[in-house]
Amino acid sequence: MGKRRTPFLRVLILAILIKEGSLHGYSLYKRILYHTRLKWKPSIGTIYRTLNEMVKEELIMRRAENRRRNYTITSKGIDYFIKNSKAPLTKMAGVLATALEAYLKISSINPDMSGLLSKDLKERLKNLKKVLQKYDL
């Protein structure tokens, strides 16, 4: 097996496939750019190499449909996602909660800073809130 790509990319690809179902490689690439807001932009070559590795490891399946190669997660991919997403998710949740509490504290101390959170961040937090409410978390 060749050099393993970043585990974060693998987990992100699997999360996208779980959420959205079967997608072709370029659609996955566009979703990654959207979710990372272009702050982290792996090359299209890195995406396809990672997809090929994941197919070989049977984490995802590749199927030719309408002249495109579509990717779908497998049960082995779901197991990989569960095993490898818990620790980073826990860390990210803790950092996010602490940062948001800091923003809210700054806003409460200085009302002139009530617009401290960007429109984009507020939108993403509203989406997160919807997900948490949907699953009663």
Shape: elongated
Count of individual domains: 2
Give the fraction of residues assigned to helices.
55-70%
Give the averaged pLDDT, no decimals: 86
Tell me the radius of gyration: 18 Å
Structure notes:
The chain has 137 residues and is mainly alpha-helical. The protein folds into two domains: 7-77, Orthogonal Bundle (Arc Repressor Mutant, subunit A); 85-134. The protein has five helices and three strands. It has helices at residues 7-20, 25-36, 44-56, 75-109, 119-134; strands at residues 23-24, 60-65, 68-73. Strands 1-3-2 form a three-stranded antiparallel beta sheet. Strand 2 and strand 3 form a beta hairpin. The longest helix has 35 residues, at 75-109. The N and C termini lie far apart (39 Å). The model has no long low-confidence stretch (mean pLDDT 86).
Which descriptors apply to this entry?
Arc Repressor Mutant, subunit A, mainly alpha, 3-stranded antiparallel beta sheet, 137 residues
Write the layout of secondary structure elements.
Elements: H1 7-20, E1 23-24, H2 25-36, H3 44-56, E2 60-65, E3 68-73, H4 75-109, H5 119-134
Antiparallel strand pairs: 1-3, 2-3
Helix pairs in contact: 1-4, 2-3
